[in-house]
Amino acid sequence: MQKLEIKGGKKISGTITISGSKNATLPILASTILTKKKIIITNVPIVKDVETMLELLQFIGSKIIFKKKEKKVEIINRKSLKTFAPYYLLKTMRAGVLVLGPLLAKYGNAKVSLPGGCAIGSRPIDLHLNALKKMGASIQIKNGYVIALAKKGLNGCFIKFPKISVGATENILIASCFAKGKS
């Protein structure tokens, strides 16, 4: 094991600014679909995926006020949102699939493009879909879109993923907020 030993003699002092995390911000943004209350998120990183997610939320009907200099976003969902997330907004961003769970949970249906945006290679969303099916959703994939229905709402249940998936865990945690029963 390597180690770094610093022999100084001078006291270190000062402050640093910690940047916001894209991977924390994206599921938080998706979860705002669930409420009609005004949401304010601070320390928002100014990166392409966050901007695309904000564009997606605006497309479905969220009122977005992004104060870039302050790294602050205000989101208001006073009206019903569209339950359709188009390819052109998800093609560059894998995290776009995170709107599937909250849209389905809140409105009982969602049509969300299969995601793109991964330079690592193919990372399917089957864990998301199988968990939503276990919660009572019917899922079809047609012409590059996930079509999900849960007319009577989602049902809480025990879900154990066969492998680790942060995105699927986030999506199902958000969806389970409106599920009947314990998840």
UniProtKB/TrEMBL annotation:
<keyword id="KW-0963">Cytoplasm</keyword>
<comment type="pathway">
    <text>Cell wall biogenesis; peptidoglycan biosynthesis.</text>
</comment>
<dbReference type="InterPro" id="IPR050068">
    <property type="entry name" value="MurA_subfamily"/>
</dbReference>
<keyword id="KW-0573">Peptidoglycan synthesis</keyword>
<keyword id="KW-0131">Cell cycle</keyword>
<dbReference type="GO" id="GO:0009252">
    <property type="term" value="P:peptidoglycan biosynthetic process"/>
</dbReference>
<dbReference type="GO" id="GO:0008760">
    <property type="term" value="F:UDP-N-acetylglucosamine 1-carboxyvinyltransferase activity"/>
</dbReference>
<protein>
    <recommendedName>
        <fullName>UDP-N-acetylglucosamine 1-carboxyvinyltransferase</fullName>
        <ecNumber>2.5.1.7</ecNumber>
    </recommendedName>
</protein>
<dbReference type="GO" id="GO:0051301">
    <property type="term" value="P:cell division"/>
</dbReference>
<keyword id="KW-0133">Cell shape</keyword>
<dbReference type="InterPro" id="IPR036968">
    <property type="entry name" value="Enolpyruvate_Tfrase_sf"/>
</dbReference>
<dbReference type="InterPro" id="IPR001986">
    <property type="entry name" value="Enolpyruvate_Tfrase_dom"/>
</dbReference>
<feature type="domain" description="Enolpyruvate transferase">
    <location>
        <begin position="7"/>
        <end position="182"/>
    </location>
</feature>
<keyword id="KW-0808">Transferase</keyword>
<dbReference type="GO" id="GO:0071555">
    <property type="term" value="P:cell wall organization"/>
</dbReference>
<keyword id="KW-0961">Cell wall biogenesis/degradation</keyword>
<dbReference type="GO" id="GO:0005737">
    <property type="term" value="C:cytoplasm"/>
</dbReference>
<comment type="similarity">
    <text>Belongs to the EPSP synthase family. MurA subfamily.</text>
</comment>
<dbReference type="Pfam" id="PF00275">
    <property type="entry name" value="EPSP_synthase"/>
</dbReference>
<dbReference type="GO" id="GO:0008360">
    <property type="term" value="P:regulation of cell shape"/>
</dbReference>
<dbReference type="InterPro" id="IPR013792">
    <property type="entry name" value="RNA3'P_cycl/enolpyr_Trfase_a/b"/>
</dbReference>
<keyword id="KW-0132">Cell division</keyword>
